[in-house]
Amino acid sequence: MRVSLDWLKDFIDVKGGAEKAQQSLTMTGLEVSSIINIENDSVMDIEITPNRPDCLSVLGVARELASATARPLKVPQSVKKAYMKKGNSRGSVKIEVVDKKGCPRYVGAIIKNVKVGPSPKWLVERLNAMGVRSVNNIVDITNYVLFELGQPLHAFDLDKLEGKRIIVRHAKKGESIVTIDGVKRDLDPDMLVIADTRSPVAIAGIMGGKHTEISNETHTILLESAYFNPITVRKAQRKLGLASESSYRFERGVDMGMILAASARAQEMIRDIAGGRVKGTITDSGGRIEKEKEIVLNLDEVPRVLGIDIKSNSIIDFFKRLDLKPLKRGKNQISVKVPSYRQDLDREIDLIEEIARLYGYDKMPSKNPVFGIQKYYEEEKKDQYSFEKETKRILCSLGLNEVLTYTLTSRFSVESLGISFDNAVRLANPLSSNQEFMRPSLISEMLEVVSWNLSRNNSLLKLFELNKIYLVDGQTKKICEKSSLSIGICGETRGNWKENSRALDFFDLKGTVEGLLDEIGIKDYVIEKQESFIFRQELSAHIKINGETIGTIGEVKPEIAKKFDIKEKTYLAEIDIEGLLRHTGQGKRFATLPRYPSMKRDISLLVDDSVDSSSIFDLVRDVGGELVRSIGAFDLYRGQQVQEGKKSLAYR
Length: 652
Known about the structure:
The protein is 30% helix and 26% strand. By secondary structure, the protein is of the alpha+beta class. It has 5 domains: 2-74, Phenylalanyl-tRNA Synthetase, Chain B, domain 1 (2-Layer Sandwich); 94-284, Phenylalanyl-trna Synthetase, Chain B, domain 3 (Phenylalanyl-tRNA Synthetase, Chain B, domain 3); 294-363, 2-Layer Sandwich (Phenylalanyl-tRNA Synthetase, Chain B, domain 1), CATH 3.30.56; 378-582, BirA Bifunctional Protein, domain 2 (2-Layer Sandwich); 603-651, 2-Layer Sandwich (Alpha-Beta Plaits), CATH 3.30.70. Strand 8 and strand 9 form a beta hairpin. It starts with a strand and ends with a strand.
C-alpha cells in the first residue's frame, strides 16, 4: 500500500524524512519495499500482511510509526469524537437491513445542498500519490477517507434512489446491475446488495451502481458507511471477478468502531469543500458495539518465549504506545484491553509478539533456543514425531516409496469413501470444488496417486503416505486432527532369470503390514476378517492389537476403483498412527540361546470355510502357552477328498 509522507505528517511528527520512517516501520514488521519521490512529497510502498488490516490506512501506518518512535499521535477531532460511538437507529434515512449477519452495521447520512465540482489541488495531489485519479469533490472525499482511516464509504445520489430508502438484502434470481465502470453484471442470490425499492444500486462492499452515481447535477447525497461480512464480500468478489480498494479492506475486516467516525470525517470535509449540510440525524442500523476484548499476560511467559528478561515497567510502556490499555492484576500478570481495530490480537502469545516488536528483534542476543529437545530424544519411543519418522524408515526399507498429497480434497473423494458429510470438515469458503473438504482419510488420495501412475505406465506400485486426516467428532462436534498411515500396492513384480513376474496380491500387502508391526515390536496383533464399504467382502479385514481396531486392510472394490479410472487390482491399508503408538514401548527383548535344539511340529486341520486362520493361531497359542514360540500357515487345500464347504489348513 502506498503512503504519502506529507499525509503521514498530519498524524505524527516525522523526523529524519522517508528513509528514517522506512527504517522504523520495517523494524516493527511493516516492510517498506520502495520510496518514490514526487514533487515535494515522498511516497512509501509498504507491504501489509493479511493479519493487519488496521494498517491499510494512513492512520494505521501512523499508529505503527508512533508506537515505534514513542511519539504522540494526532487524530482529527471529528474522528476522536465519534470513534466507538453509536448513532440514532431512527434517523432521517430509512434503512432496512434484511441480512444482519452479512451487514451487522450500516450508517447512513443525508447531506443537502452539495455543489459537485473539481476537488482542491491538495486533495487531488494526495489521491494521485495513492495512485487514484480525481473524479469530483464528493467521490474524492469518500476515497480520501478510505485511505486516511481505512473505512470504505460510498455516496448515492438520493434523488435517484427509488423510494428514498436503503434495503440491504441478497440479490434476487435474475437480477443484474450496471456498475460505475459501465459493465453489466449478473447477480446471484448469494451476493449481498444495496437496493432501493426497485432494484440493486450497489454490490455491497465492492462497487456502486451507475444509475445512482454522483454527477454534476447531484444536489442531495446519501453517504454510506458500513460493515460488510468479509466472507460474503470475498465470495461475491471472486464470482464477479471484480476487485476494488473497498473490497480489499472489507475482505480483511474493517474496524467496527470506525464506521460512524469515518462518516463524521467525510461529512466535515463535504461541508468544508462542497458546502453541504447534514439533514436531520444520522441513521445507524447496528446494535451495540462490542466492548474491547481483554487478554491476560503471564509475565513469566515473556522470558520463557523470548529468551530475554524485560522489566514489567517496560512492558507496560510498550502496551501504552500500542494503544493497549494495561491494568496490573496479580503478582505476575497484566490484564490488557485491546482496541477494536487490532483484530489480530487474541491470545497471550500475540501480546508477547507485540513486546518483541517494540523491544526490537535486532536487540535480541543471538543464542541457541532453550527447549526441552533432549527430553524428546530420551523418550523417543513415546515421541510421536520420532515414531512417525521411524515408521517411514521401516516402510522404505520394506521397498515402499513415500508419496505426499494435498490436505484439501473434493466432494467426490468424500462420497467415494462412504463417509457422511456430517463427519467431514467442509471449508466455509473453498477456493474450488476440488478443495472443498479437509481429507477425512488418506485412501482416496492414495487411489488418485495409483490412478495417476498407472496412466503413465508405472506398472509396479508399492506406496505409502503418513499424514494428517480431519474428522468431526460425532458427539462433541469438534474437529479432530489425527495422524494416519495409508499403504497401497498394485501391479506386477518384475521377473528375472530365476522367477517369473507375478501380480501383487492381498498377501503381499498383509506381509508388509506384518513386517512393519514386527519391526516396531508389536506381537499381539491379529488381522481379522471384517466387511468394509471400500474393500471386497472376500478380502477385507481389520487390524487389531489387544482387541483394539487400529486399521483396515483389503482389496478395493472394482466399482470404487472404476471411479478413479483404475482397472488393475489394488490393495490398500489404512492405520491409525496414534493407535499404533499406544501399543508400542515393549521394545526388543533379548534372551540367552537355548541349551537344547528346537522342535518343529506340523499340524493339519479340516475346518469350515468360514473359520479364519487367525482364530486357529489364537487357539494354538492359548493351548501351547510358552512352549509355542512361533506359528505359521504353509498350506491351504480345497478339492478332492475335502468335502464342499470345508478346507484343509496346515500349520508349522
